[in-house]
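To: structure subgroup
Subject: Chain for Friday's discussion

All,

I'm putting the inputs and outputs inline so they're searchable in the archive.
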Amino acid sequence: MKKILFILSISLCIISCSSDDNRSNNPNLPSISFNHTVNLDLPQFNDLKFPGNSEVIGIEGVGIKGVIIYNVDNTLYSAFELSDPNITPSDCSALNVTGIRAESNCGNDNAYEIINGQQLEGEGGFPLLRYQIRREQNILVISN
């Protein structure tokens, strides 16, 4: 009897667990693949050597509209898509970054924090699309 209860309990736990894949898929942003490196020794990326600074990479093929990189503490960096996640990509969907805020250029009130990607103001509810980033000596590797 104990074996049957144990098996039923385990089965119930497995069945009740659900994937959160549908919650992380943003229908507004297409899925793309890219791999980009940033050399922190280059003068244009000097600000990224210091915590609290950010840089926007606006090169075609790196993200949808570009990538925002933020230096949290010299060992931890965040990288997010530059497109407003709550509208489909368009001429105005690249966000304007000032300090730790990224704001919409499309006439809405959407604003996001570039440290963690959370939406601060506006409609839609999707956070910024996070990209993988790692530091290898003085090179940042960003990918999706």
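Points worth raising on Friday:
Confidence is low (pLDDT under 50) at residues 11-23.
The chain has two helices and ten strands.

D.
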